[in-house]
Design brief:
The structure holds two protein chains of two kinds. Chain A is globular, with a radius of gyration of 18 Å. Chain A folds into two domains: 5-121, Rossmann fold (3-Layer(aba) Sandwich); 134-239, 3-Layer(aba) Sandwich (Rossmann fold), CATH 3.40.50. By secondary structure, chain A is of the alpha/beta class. Chain A is built from 13 helices and eight strands. Chain B has three domains: 1-42 and 310-393, no CATH class; 46-294, Rossmann fold, CATH 3.40.50.10420; 400-465, no CATH class. The termini of chain B are far apart. Classes of the chains: A alpha/beta, B alpha/beta. At the A-B interface, helix 1, helix 2, helix 3, helix 4 and helix 8 of A face helix 1, helix 14, helix 17, helix 18 and helix 19 of B. Bound molecules: iron/sulfur cluster. The site of iron/sulfur cluster has 15 residues of chain B, from helix 13.
């Protein structure tokens, strides 16, 4: 029996860069008993515009996304950053718009990041599956601070048979991606991601996971450039047991 | 001090390549973060204290006129003279006039970020008044002729080796590396300066409206000697430092010490109410308090008002990955790190400072540690909106973003265009599934590979499967 209809907001990065994450999310949500739909007209949540000070364009994209997804019982995104945008920032962005303020608030209440949705809303406590690898989990800043996601991914990962979780010492430190930041300040971003990559290597992990593709592309890119052996994947791929696609940025050296 | 924030990019690049600076920053990160973390862990009610601090500061800002009036009245009743300076220039002029009226040629000065903000040191020098900084960090940067790079550790950007070289040159003694002996050298110079000074200039951490008192905290005791020994004491501070009562001040002092250095309380806390009275054993004969506005009252009632809650603890910069990568000087003005990225545009103008609020990943760590819960990333976004409105960012950046936003509203075109783009990138990535170089993406690929997209987009693959 269906537990409700979920609109999957794939996020522009997953849609364009890593469909495997979208399929993993679909599978996890369907296994948890939801009917999942993926509206075709979805694009980007507008965060690049919002964070660049272009509030008008961001609001336009917010209205679009709300209209597209408000018919669903839940809206789930495999990204803390995009879910944070929809849940925390849309209501602020549209607060002064009388026609949309209320709609944005109601909509925001339905939005969740994928892994926290599984644990908090769907009540998933453990997952079947196994992975005999030593794994590090990187907390994305928006997932951690805007949505308070810390234990949920760790709980589900630890339920997989054979998986050993190691903690990074700077686990509440940013990887330096920051959306447009990595383009505007490439040198500072490079320093930050190098610190993070060094920490990942030193942790002894064989596989690095995170819930946000932005961080993952950044860290994977730096790890590959350093010639590291650590593989990189989105947490949803591991939780769904879908490892057929090669890791992000290819295999480690 | 000239506003050099437009050169943030270049300064940041230089800072990243400066090995000595990087060593100093690594040490700063270690020390400040762990000390604060320990202090917070030792106080279960720290979160409640933060909320209390926020509420006190908000209340004051909502009734700033009232508390300002009361403070002036009480401070004058205690014998101090209070002056309001609307601008930096007015503040400099006021202080110079006071010094000249008292025939002062030599001053000692303890830490005051507001004095730095209004460029008081340069004004004193131009007027031929000798100034000796009595805070050890300030003393060091005075010798080096550099601006501070941190709110409470003005010389944190320097390594001990560099300080040793500076001291040897300034004191005419052989190079000394034992920190204790270095401090002893500085003490000798400072002792003489204290005795010779005809006026002492200090800042203020808080101004208590109820009593007209000025509160300063230090770990070296230098503010006491600066304000207590010479016959004239001038306080240079800003209008938003007010708190209603002594009790409020102490709540904030508890937050300040823990957030700044991880102490429960600063080593020296001085409450000064008016100049020396007839039966006092010591203290200045005259006390003047210069309250600087310099753009602050314009922030009241605006979206930036929460920034005025700041108690200058430095926690935000100590936890900021950008500050810790480039140090304070890159910010190009008095206030640095996340608080500087919000305050500097307000005081110096966004046209001259727009790179600062952009220099953040919005990771949010600053807001997490701020003792008065200032939503620093949200306030940086306020400035980004203003910069966007004024078209301050380079045209190609703005045009690129607007094009993206436009395409995102036209899903068919978006799909066709980006679908093609990612397939091309996937092909270029080949079997290694990454690109080492890509035209127009040099910023990314100089330091990291670009992981290649898988090929078809999610939505396209989904359609094919279903
Ligand atoms: S903004 Fe907050 S954390 Fe930063 S110096 Fe001010 S009070 Fe401290």
């Amino acid at each position: 029996m269906s537990r409700g209809r979920v609109g999957l907001f794939a996020t522009c990065l997953v849609d364009l860069w890593r469909p495997s994450v979208g399929f993993a999310a679909l599978e996890l949500l369907e296994r948890a008993g939801y009917v999942v739909e993926v509206p075709r007209a979805q694009t980007c949540c507008g965060q690049p515009a919002y964070n660049s000070g272009d509030a008008a364009d961001a609001a336009e994209l917010a209205r679009r996304t709300i209209a597209l997804f408000e018919p669903f019982d839940w809206v789930v995104a495999p990204s803390g950053s995009c879910a944070g945008m929809l849940r925390v920032h849309y209501p602020r962005l549209l607060a002064a718009d009388p026609a949309w303020a209320e709609r944005a608030r109601t909509f925001a209440g339905k939005v969740h990041e994928l892994v926290s949705f599984l644990v908090r809303v769907a009540g998933v406590e453990r997952l079947e599956g196994q992975l005999r690898r030593r794994v590090a989990y990187h907390d994305s800043c928006s997932g951690l601070r805007e949505l308070g996601i810390r234990e949920e991914p760790r709980q589900l990962l630890c339920s997989l048979e054979g998986l050993e979780l190691v903690e990074l010492p700077g686990r509440d430190e940013c990887c330096g991606f920051g959306g447009t930041f990595c383009v505007k300040y490439p040198e500072i971003s490079a320093r930050m991601v190098d610190d993070k990559a060094a920490e990942v290597e030193a942790s002894g992990a064989e596989l690095l996971l995170a819930g946000d593709l932005g961080c993952l592309l950044n860290i994977a890119g730096r790890l590959r450039r350093r010639g590291s052996r650590v593989d990189v994947r989105h947490v949803a791929e591991v939780l769904a047991g879908r490892l057929e696609a090669p890791p992000i940025g290819g295999e480690g050296a | 001090m000239e506003v050099a924030s437009l050169a943030f990019h270049q300064a940041a690049r230089r800072a990243l390549a400066d090995a000595e600076l990087q060593r100093a920053l690594a040490r700063l990160r270690q020390n400040f973060q762990s000390r604060r973390a320990q202090a917070v862990a030792a106080l279960p009610e720290f979160e409640a204290l933060r909320r209390a601090g926020e509420a006190i500061r908000d209340h004051v800002l909502q009734h700033l006129d009232h508390y300002l009036e009361r403070f002036v009245e009480r401070a004058q009743a205690a014998g101090a003279k209070v002056h309001i300076a609307a601008t930096a220039g007015e503040a400099r002029r006021l202080v110079l006039e006071l010094l000249q009226a008292h025939g002062v040629r030599r001053v000692t000065k303890s830490k005051s970020m507001v004095a730095e903000e209004v460029a008081l040191a340069e004004a004193l020098e131009a007027a031929g008044i000798r100034r000796v900084e009595t805070d050890l960090g300030e003393y060091i940067i005075q010798l080096a002729n550099e601006p501070p790079s941190h709110l409470i550790g003005p010389a944190v950007h320097m390594t001990e080796e560099r300080i040793a070289r500076l001291f040897a040159a300034a004191h005419g003694e052989p190079e000394e590396h034992d920190p204790k002996r270095l401090v002893a050298q500085a003490r000798r110079v400072l002792r003489q300066a204290y005795l010779e000074a005809e006026a002492g200039i200090t800042g203020a951490n808080f101004l208590v409206a109820e009593t007209g008192s000025v509160i300063t905290v230090t770990n070296e005791g230098n503010a006491e000697l600066t304000q207590g020994l010479p016959p004239l004491h001038i306080v240079v501070t800003s209008i938003e430092k007010l708190v209603p009562t002594m009790e409020h001040a102490f709540t904030l002092l508890r937050l300040l010490a823990r957030s700044a250095t991880g102490q429960e309380f600063a080593t020296y806390t001085t409450v000064l109410t008016g100049p020396r009275r007839a039966d006092d054993r010591d203290g200045p004969e005259a006390m003047h308090i210069v309250l600087v506005d310099n753009g602050r009252s314009a922030m009241l009632g605006s979206r930036l008002q929460p920034m005025l809650r700041c108690i200058r603890c430095s926690a935000c910069m100590n936890h900021c990955p950008v500050y810790l990568a480039v140090g304070g000087h890159a910010y190009g003005w008095t206030y640095v790190g996340p608080m500087g990225a919000v305050l500097t545009p307000a005081l110096a103008g966004i046209d001259r400072t727009y790179p600062l609020p952009e220099a953040s990943t919005f990771c949010g760590r600053c807001a997490d540690v701020c003792p008065v819960r200032i939503p620093l990333p949200d306030l940086m976004r306020v400035w980004r909106e203003e910069a966007f409105r004024r078209r301050l960012a380079p045209l190609h950046q703005r045009a690129g973003l607007r094009l993206w936003a436009w395409l995102a509203r036209h899903p068919r075109l978006y799909r066709r265009l980006f679908g093609l783009g990612v397939r091309l990138l996937a092909a270029l990535g080949g079997r290694r599934r990454r690109l080492r170089r890509l035209p127009l993406a040099g910023g990314w690929t100089r330091a990291r590979d670009l992981p290649a997209p898988e090929g078809p987009t999610f939505l396209a693959s989904l359609e094919r499967r279903r």
